[in-house]
Write a structure and sequence with these properties.
302 residues; 8-stranded parallel barrel; 11 helices; globular; binds 3-methyl-2-oxobutanoic acid
């Protein structure tokens, strides 16, 4: 059956900048993160190559492949989040030639259904950006701390410090806006510089570690939910501690199992108790309120 909802539009980016209403972007990597991000009210979802670190356990984003991105983008799109989905072009896919870049972008659009791609870098990616736009693939830019440049940058450091670096960033931002990008991520740059960039260009800036003067903000799903152990960078605000909650939940499950407190009749079949949450007294399934609420695949019929 056709989805009756309108196709998510990237127009939200220009509209929010016009209205002066901050854009909210959250990363998503699979069905559950996409459902949560969209239900939480994000204006757009970014399938960031940060998935290499938070989902796949790599130390950097460099090992992420195009196949990885396609795999995760498809899972995000299966959530039918109803908002635009933007995918990172992973390292190596937009460095060789415009033709290879377009082929990578086409895979993300055609096989994974994303609405746009993001790529790191400014002027030096001019040919790749032009080729993507020529192939009808909308492009988001990414300046400042570009994690794919970690080896050249010598680590994850604040960028745009000093007159020369500031001028380069302003020039690259103006270039990306002029080139036709619909938005620009600014990562780990001084707040005053990000505000200058935001005022200087016609497309919205989406900050991460770039202060409150941007047109919007993006956070990594795992960071904002506190899913992973260890300290967070200064620019992260943890809105929940789901990692700790998860550990406590698994520990409670383990204790219940070991003490034979789970399962009870309530979670067992037979004995006159309605079989599952979401079933009425006649045993008719009313369906899970939240996809995935009935453990993968829903209620078995037997
Ligand atoms: O990969 C990613 O998640 C990103 C955001 C941090 C902007 O690029």
């Amino acid at each position: 059956m056709q989805d009756p909802r309108p196709v998510p539009s990237l127009d939200v980016f220009a509209r929010r900048k016009r209205e002066g209403m901050p854009l909210v972007v959250v990363t998503a990597y699979d069905l559950s993160s996409a459902l949560i991000g969209a239900a939480g009210g994000a204006d757009a979802l970014l399938v960031g190559d940060s998935l290499g670190m938070v989902m796949l356990g790599h130390e950097t984003t460099l090992p992420v492949t195009l196949d990885d991105m396609v795999h995760h983008c498809r899972a995000v799109q299966r959530a039918r989040p109803g908002v635009p989905v933007i995918a990172d072009l992973p390292y190596g896919t937009f460095h060789v030639s415009p033709a290879e870049t377009v082929r990578a972008g086409l895979r993300l659009v055609q096989e994974a259904g994303v609405h746009a791609v993001k790529l790191e870098g400014g002027r030096r990616r001019a040919d790749m950006i032009a080729a993507l736009l020529d192939a009808e693939i909308p492009v988001m830019g990414h300046l400042g701390l570009t994690p794919q440049s970690v080896n050249r940058l010598g680590g994850y450091r604040v960028q745009g410090r000093g007159a020369e670096a500031e001028a380069r960033l302003l020039d690259d931002a103006a270039f990306l806006a002029q080139a036709g990008c619909f938005g620009l991520v600014l990562e780990c740059v001084p707040a005053a510089l990000a505000a200058r960039v935001t005022a200087a260009i016609a497309i919205p800036t989406i900050g991460i570690g770039a202060g409150g003067g941007c047109d919007g903000q993006v956070l990594v799903f795992h960071d904002l939910l506190g899913l992973l152990p260890g300290p967070s960078p200064r620019f992260v605000k943890r809105y929940a501690e789901l990692g700790r909650m998860g550990i406590a939940a698994v520990a409670a499950f383990a204790a219940d199992v070991r003490e034979r407190h789970f399962p009870t009749a309530e979670h067992s079949y037979g004995g006159g108790v309605p079989a599952v949450q979401g079933e009425d007294a006649q045993g008719e399934s009313t369906g899970p309120a939240y996809p995935g609420g009935a453990a993968a695949g829903g209620e078995p019929s037997a």
